[in-house]
Amino acid sequence: MFEVYRCVAACCRLQLCRSQPIFKAFYKQNWLIMASRAGPRATGTDGSDYQHRERVATHYQMSVALKSEIRKLNIVHLLMWVLLAAQVTVSQLNLVSHKVVASPYQWEYPYLLSIIPTVFSFMALPRNNISYLVMSMISAGLFCVAPLIYGSMEMFPVAQQLYRHGKAYRFIFGFSAVSVMYLVIVIGVQVHGWQIYYSKKLLDQWFTSTQEKKKK
């Protein structure tokens, strides 16, 4: 019971001290010291590198966001590649009738090489490998964009005939093959265009980070 009385008395004295001007001035002075440069801070920094740390954090956040977008585009491209590879395989092995799944157009064969830049891209992202990312961008132009441009030119006469006369001679599960393939081309051009764009921005981020590390 005596210990309880002692605790109550101590609390009362503390409350009285807090109401005194001297205590308030002491508390305010210590708070200002802690909030200023003279106050305690994390070991290893004096606060002067705040802008540098903010810049590094911004580069890191941008790099993470760009990697996420590139991975999403790579996955979409893989789905496209699997569908085209399935069509070529089915056609070459005669697994189904050509009336059900039409034989591939010529541009589809070189487009199968478009898996190469996607593999380089997946290899570049985990370790920020600049060489693999550059190879991915260059091969994307050769094996992705170029076959799609050639494919749009190859199928243009067939698409023109379909538009003018409404006649189609190739089908994929009942749909006009040229219409399906043009849809693939439209999606593919957008996917590969954004892949190259985001890869270029990511490459710039990596170069900036590398230059800042060299300056240190």
**Uncertain ranges:** 1-5, 7-20, 31-39
Gyration radius from CA atoms, angstroms: 33 Å
Number of strands: 2
Structural class: mainly alpha
Number of helices: 7
Q: Profile the largest sheet.
A: 2 strands, antiparallel
Overall geometry:
elongated
Mean pLDDT: 80
Sequence of strands across the biggest β-sheet: 1-2
Percent of residues in beta strands: under 5%
Helix-strand pattern, N to C? HHHHHHEEH
Question: How far apart are the termini?
Answer: 65 Å
The percentage helix is over 70%
Kindly summarize this structure in a few lines.
The chain has seven helices and two strands. With 216 residues, the chain is mainly α.
Describe this structure in words.
Mean pLDDT is 80; it is low at 1-5, 7-20 and 31-39. The protein has helices spanning 2-18, 21-35, 50-93, 108-111, 115-124, 130-165, 177-215; strands at residues 171-172, 175-176. The protein is elongated, with a radius of gyration of 33 Å. 76% of the residues lie in helices and 2% in strands. With 216 residues, it is an all-alpha fold. Strand 1 and strand 2 form a beta hairpin. It has a two-stranded antiparallel sheet with strand order 1-2.
